Amino acid sequence: MSGVRVLVGTRKGAFILTADGKREKWDISGPHFAGWEMYHLKGSPADPNRIYASQSSGWFGQIIQRSDDGGKTWQQPGTPPGEPTTAPDGTPKGESNKFVYDTSAETGKPLTTHQWYDGTPHPWEFKRVWHVEPSIEDPDTVYAGVEDAALFRTTDGGKSWHELPGLRGHGTGAKWAPGAGGMCLHTILLDPKNRQRMYTAISSAGAFRTDDGGQTWKPINRGLHSQYIPDPTAEIGHCVHRIAFHKSRPEVLFMQKHWDVMRSDDAGESWREVSGNLPTDFGFVIDVNANEPETIYVVPIKSDSEHFPLDGKLRVYRSRSGGNEWEPLTNGLPQRDCYVNVLRDAMAVDSLDKCGVYFGTTGGQVYGSADGGDHWQAIVHDLPAVVSVEAQTLP
Amino acid sequence: MIRVTLPAHLRKLAQVDGEVQVEVNGAVTQGSVLDALEEKYPMLRGTIRDHVTRKRRAFVRFFACHEDLSHESPDAPLPDAIANGTEPYMIIGAIAGG
Fold first, then answer.
1. Inter-chain contact A100–B52, Cβ cutoff 8 Å?
2. What structural domains does chain B harbor?
3. What is the ipTM of this complex?
4. Cα–Cα distance, A217 to A170 (Å, whole number)
């Protein structure tokens, strides 16, 4: 019988929630990596038991963890304890934690600074991995979005990571500036129909696309309007919070911007607002129903200074028309005194029929719906603050 | 044999309990002790010192024989009590909220 595995990253460890296809009874394992910030965990589409995790700490920096058995056991790739520190081929071990920006002359123009909050130049400093995105077809290839914003890739199962410098070096990188959460590359979408195409999003620079496997990039922010920047329609500078697509239709993109829910029907060449009747169009998450490409979900948040739901009511909003017309989903969600936030990587869908939808809150709840959002239950409700949620559909 | 104490998070990463011991050939300095530690436990590379600059991470401190050596030169000799294993070289995470 098919099942679901939900990977939850929190401020103080990771948790794995599993259920059969009914999605009624859940087993909870964890905390894994207790005490560490787990910004993101994600499984390989090519091998669901291969899971990558970003483990970080303000004290001890960045660690990459990998599981080859669905999250039962973990290792730092290439570094089993008690073994020689150099692999037989001469490769040094202990490199899986190493994220070093490319400054070589051969691969483009080395970038030395981006803009700081006050507009002054600031050196690029690696802080953490926000998002890991395993390749669609190769379990050993993974992309990593990091703060300060850059895109890295491993092709050896996480043992070593190398920057794809074309993104930072495409021309606007020196003008990127951090948002309140840091200058993070938080969204990576790999086009399942065109393996040379991928999308990234950076707070607060905007959205970017490559059509040649990551060598060259272009900003795709035409149509975005952000009143909080000097030129509201500038090429870059938009605080994109999340982008999602349906895998059958990867040229149709949905975006939750700082304010505004947006849609593009031409792979990001142009965007139009689809906030419609939402009570507030500020928010962080957005996702698409796995079975219905025009059904999308957001969690409206009151404002950029009040990061909690309107009126203390936690409501997911669903549009069945690709935006503009939205309905509140409340069945099973708290409708009074609720003041949690739902962070940008903390919503996911499974691909069962009916589609399962999951999201985590800064209050430590992970809510799930096994019927596309009509009914919700708190799968678990007392975790540390949830940073990320991913769902795997298991055979 | 040099004795080294690690903070709990790093003991877990290195999969050890309690103190660890490392062998240093040549002068016993903070740099040579940390080199030996990372050689024996490569999963700790980057967690105590930056991978590239080899500088101490901001929230990590080094102590030996009741002295704070965090700002001392990595090439300065450590006290004899560290070199002969009487006292441990202590790697400590700064106390901070959260």
1. yes
2. 2-93 (3.10.20.30)
3. 0.88
4. 6
Q: Say if residues A52 and A64 touch (Cβ distance below 8 Å).
A: yes
Residue A106: its pLDDT value, please?
A: 79
Across the beta sheet with B67-68, what order do the strands follow? B20-22, B2-5, B89-93, B60-64, B67-68
Say yes or no for a CB contact (<8 Å) between A60 and B96: no
Confidence of residue A180 (pLDDT cuts 50, 70, 90): confident
Instruction: Give the containing element (helix H, strand E) for A42.
Output: strand A37-43
What residues form DSSP beta bridges with A113? Answer: A123
**In the 3-class helix/strand/coil scheme, how is A206-249 assigned residue by residue?**
EEEEECCCCCCCEECCCCCCCCCCCCCCCCCCCCEEEEEECCCC
- For A290-336, write each residue's pLDDT tens digit: 999 999 999 999 999 999 999 999 999 999 999 999 999 999 999 99
Q: In what order do the strands lie in the sheet with A27-32?
A: A27-32, A13-20, A3-10, A386-394
Provide long-range contacts, Cβ within 8 A and 24+ apart, for B49-58: B51/A97, B51/A98, B51/A100, B52/A100, B57/A59, B57/A60, B57/A61
CB-based burial, B2-28: b 16+ in 10 Å, e otherwise: bbbebbebbbebbebeeebebebeeeb
Any idea which residue has 């096994």 for tokens? A370
Of A57, A58, A85, the CB nearest to B42: A85
Q: How far is CA A290 from CA A193, A315, A344, in A?
A: 16, 20, 19
Best of B34, B51, B59, B92 to substitute, by most chain A Cβ atoms within 10 angstroms, is: B51
End-to-end CA separation in angstroms for chain A: 7
- Range of the structural domain that residue A26 is part of: 3-80+95-394
In DSSP terms, A146 is beta-bridged to A129, A150
Whole-Å CA distances, A182 to A9, A126, A257, A288, B51: 18, 11, 16, 26, 22
Question: B37 vs chain A: nearest CA distance in angstroms?
Answer: 11
The rounded distance, in Å, linking the Cα atoms of A107 and A393 is 38
- Which 3 state secondary structure label does DSSP give A29? strand
pTM above 0.90, yes or no: yes
Domain count for chain A, please give it.
1
Q: For the domain that residue A216 is a member of, what is the CATH number?
A: 2.130.10.10
CA separation (Å) from B66 to A270, B63, B96? 63, 6, 21
